[in-house]
Give the backbone structure.
Amino acid sequence: MMANVVFFALVALGLVFAVIRLFKGPTPFDRVLSMDMINIIITGLLVVIAGILDSALYLDIALVFAVLAFLETIVFARYMEGRR
């Protein structure tokens, strides 16, 4: 139980740093990278929650979220490429 608390606290800290980079990023590329990092953290959290709760539903949600996050990253990368 204590290991779960420590794990979620460290993941929350990483999420806070990613959100700070999202808002303070000096370049738009940093913002896109931090959005991708946030998506990876959330996907990982969903997988860990699926393991803790022993529910396959969260794995399905994580899979769909990961695919949509990948498409989001591709769209923003294309948008940034066009702006240059």
Notes: The chain is about 90% helix and 0% strand. The chain has one domain: 2-83.
